[in-house]
């Protein structure tokens, strides 16, 4: 193994509930009586794309809305929630990053969220995880095609100068897993609070916390 590729914000800090709450606040701000309860939201997360999720929901209930404007509001509410008192590294993430760096492995953040989200996340986690811990960080402007397309991972491999067989991806959602596999990368499912019930059968295996030694053993056994 030569590189560990974290695939989304919620593989580093579980922000899934903050995302759902931000959607509901955006709906209220736009005068909508929508409220995405957790059980309903869990099913929605089986597909990627926040703006598309809003548009599809509106179509399903026969309403016309400005999905882009609502999503912009949602992003603002979400960004305001990325504070040190509400965002913390997930179990084993800090230790895995440090273990990788101590062994000379590369660590990348292969996300397609906005650069602003990334900077706010890193600011909230700065007491334990730094931007400089990553050899590469992608954002929404890095590729034209978002996950589950393989473009983000293909681009990351190119920039890192690594082969897919020498890397391992960590993803918290089905679209991310599909993206990594499409790029030929073994993927560990690390579900967040709201994706734990999803069927991650295409992942190499699933964990509820990261363990650097276990990741190394997995690579050596393949």
From TrEMBL:
InterPro entries referenced in this protein's UniProt entry, alphabetically: CbbY-like, HAD-like_sf, HAD-SF_hydro_IA, HAD_2, HAD_sf, PGP-like_dom2
A Pfam family this chain is assigned to = HAD_2
Q: Which GO terms describe its molecular function?
A: hydrolase activity
Annotated transmembrane regions: none
Q: Which domain of life is it from?
A: Bacteria
> What name does UniProt use for this protein?
Haloacid dehalogenase
> What organism is listed for this UniProt entry?
Chamaesiphon polymorphus CCALA 037
């Amino acid at each position: 193994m030569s590189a560990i590729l974290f695939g989304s914000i919620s593989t580093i800090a579980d922000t899934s509930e903050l995302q759902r709450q931000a959607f509901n606040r955006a709906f209220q701000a736009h005068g909508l009586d929508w409220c995405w309860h957790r059980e309903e939201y869990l099913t929605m997360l089986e597909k990627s794309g926040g703006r598309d999720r809003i548009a599809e929901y509106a179509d399903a209930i026969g309403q016309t809305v400005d999905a882009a404007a609502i999503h912009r509001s949602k992003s603002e509410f979400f960004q305001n929630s990325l504070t040190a008192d509400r965002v913390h590294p997930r179990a084993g993430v800090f230790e895995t990053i440090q273990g990788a760096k101590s062994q000379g492995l590369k660590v990348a953040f292969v996300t397609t969220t906005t650069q602003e989200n990334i900077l706010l996340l890193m600011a909230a986690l700065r007491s334990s995880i730094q931007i400089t811990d990553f050899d590469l960080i992608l954002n929404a402007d890095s590729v034209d095609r978002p996950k589950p397309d393989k473009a983000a991972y293909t681009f990351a491999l190119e920039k890192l100068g690594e082969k897919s067989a020498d890397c391992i991806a960590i993803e918290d959602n089905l679209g991310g897993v599909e993206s990594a596999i499409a790029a030929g990368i073994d993927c560990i499912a690390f579900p967040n609070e709201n994706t734990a019930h999803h069927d991650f059968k295409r992942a190499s295996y699933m964990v509820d916390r990261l363990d650097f030694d276990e990741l190394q053993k997995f690579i050596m056994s393949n």
